[in-house]
Amino acid sequence: MEPLHFVLSPREGETFSAGPFHIVSRVQGDQSRGAFEMYELALGPGTVDYHVHRTMDETLYVLEGEIEFNVAGKKFPRPAGSVAFVPRGVHHGFTNRGPGQARVLVTFTPSRSQNEYFRELEKLFAAPSLDTAGLAALQRRFDQELVESDK
């Protein structure tokens, strides 16, 4: 089987807008034969809610701004150039406290079709009001389970 290869410019990749988040697909799972997927996430002041993945690891690299990671109940404010590795099963979330925008490179290993999750998430956020039951079902389907904070 011929190896897959490609090169993207900064402006290439499928894009998703969901609420305060702008997401650009850098590598989708089918492009890596399921090994991983990678997304660039831009957000103004805001939070990615505390959640857990049961079937994939998540690696987050801060490209711009400062992010406060909340991993297993501990908070870690970190500047650009920082990385957080979150193995499957570990509760986590992160916050951009602002005032400016932050950008984070997010890698899921192995791939679990998060591009499909982001497509559906974009549709939910485009509706006149957020369907919270639909959001919860979507999160369960794509291994994005919200959890209570580990204070």
What is the first-to-last residue Cα distance?
49 Å
H/I helix tally: 2
The level 1 CATH classification is: Mainly Beta
Tally of distinct domains: 1
Radius of gyration: 15 Å
From the 3D structure, determine the CATH topology. Jelly Rolls
What share of the residues does DSSP label as strand, in percent? 35-45%
Structural commentary:
This protein is of the alpha+beta class and 151 residues long. The chain has a single domain, classed as Jelly Rolls. Helix content is 15%, strand content 42%. It has 2 helices and 11 strands. The protein has helices at residues 114-126, 132-141, and strands spanning 15-18, 21-27, 37-43, 46-52, 57-64, 66-71, 74-79, 83-86, 92-96, 102-109, 145-146. A 6-stranded antiparallel beta sheet has the order 1-2-3-10-5-8, with helices on one face. It has a 5-stranded antiparallel beta sheet with strand order 7-6-9-4-11, with helices on one face. A hairpin with a 2-residue loop joins strand 6 (66-71) and strand 7. The chain is globular. The protein starts with 14 loop residues before the first strand and ends in a 5-residue tail after the last strand.
Provide tags for this entry.
alpha+beta, 42% strand, 6-stranded antiparallel sheet, 151 residues, 15% helix, Jelly Rolls
In short:
By secondary structure, the chain is an alpha+beta fold.
Fold topology:
Blueprint: E1 15-18, E2 21-27, E3 37-43, E4 46-52, E5 57-64, E6 66-71, E7 74-79, E8 83-86, E9 92-96, E10 102-109, H1 114-126, H2 132-141, E11 145-146
Antiparallel strand pairs: 1-2, 2-3, 3-10, 4-9, 4-11, 5-8, 5-10, 6-7, 6-9
